[in-house]
Amino acid sequence: MKMKVSDLLPYKTTRYQESMNAYVPKEAIIPLLQEKDTTTFCIVNKGDVVTEGQVLATSRELHGSVIHSSVPGIVTDIGYISDADGRRVHAVKVRLQGEFSFYGKPRKKVDWQGFPPSTLRRIIADCGVVNTFGRSVSLIHQMDRLMEKGKPALVVRLFDLDPSCTIDQFIAEQFPDEIVAGIRILATALDASRVILVVPQNFTPKTELVLPEGEMEYVTVTTDTSYYPVGGKRDIIGLVNKRRREGRINFKDLYVDSSTVYAAYEAVVYNQPVLEKFIQISGHAVYGGGILKVRLGTPIRSLIAEFGGFIKEAGKIVVNGILMGHNVTDLDTPVTKEVKAVIVMTPRDSSSQNSCECIRCGMCRNVCPMGMSPDILYGHYAFNREISQGQLNTLRDCSDCVLCNAVCPARLPLCQSIKLLRGAVNEKK
Prior knowledge:
The protein is about 30% helix and about 20% strand. The chain has 13 helices and 21 strands. A hairpin with a 7-residue loop joins strand 6 (about 55-60) and strand 7 (about 65-70). The longest helix has 15 residues, at about 175-190. The radius of gyration is 22 Å and the shape is globular.
């Protein structure tokens, strides 16, 4: 079941048409864990002088994760911090000092079209590009794994997964030429069988977003983003396969968003590591809001200050969306590769987080697009109530859309419990 976005969000999401550069932080706090299911080791020490774009941490794997310094300066500390997901992770603090290598410098484009796919993949890996279609994961790891299984399609979502966010649609609309080049780069690097563009009905790019005719097979599919969910893998697979008898897609294809495509473009065309991100700042507790181009490692506090600070009491600060994001309590939490939005909500806009016992209303079952019973799975996880193996088997069907949480009048952590239960079941296998 899909729901109207207007019934899920406390207010209409503002679409922005321009961005500006955020102030460079005096001290960047750069977490060494910025991807799912990965580990890195620090290769700098306290007191080291680092340049902008220098590698601070890497993994021991081939084409492993790479973390770069977003500013030039001196390493003042290496210790634990809380990231936007609430995890305790190692981070390097770099005090700004010295000359930039990329920021503010003239940029010269690289003619990448003669590069073989292996070279493109190496550049993407070396520049630390991550895929933020869902949870942040290493793009090169995904590409390598999928290419081992065949010739995958490249599926590009040009709007945001969470309807309270606007970053991916903003990038696609404001930088269509860069997006086209980025898609061509990824399709070449992946040796993609075809390209599927998934665009919203209200898509208004500055110039027409069209791939060169005859270069590769591609198709554009439109979806109605006034409903939710429509942007997850399962949603897109259902949408595309319903409309196409040939060229059907599945989970063995590569799914990326506009942010990932833009990062790949910057990496290959300008040989620039991932050092900055477009970030949406919005919510009724800050003045106006807008989109900033932000250096990684910038504290959330600084982004809010750029818009004049709090104009109302902040009831909740959410990273990456009202429906699918995470609450942040520490304003010194830094921007990482996976952060797209910071939404500062007033108490009036924020739902009460006080939960009570399940009232057995059945709303979570009615709204679940996968036909699951979130209340039963929650009862098993929270209270060890007996359930059938068939109910446990439905755990793999969950798309993490969080509609069950959104409609639950008891404010139970249904989606979170399903995730934890799924993880516990997987560990036993």
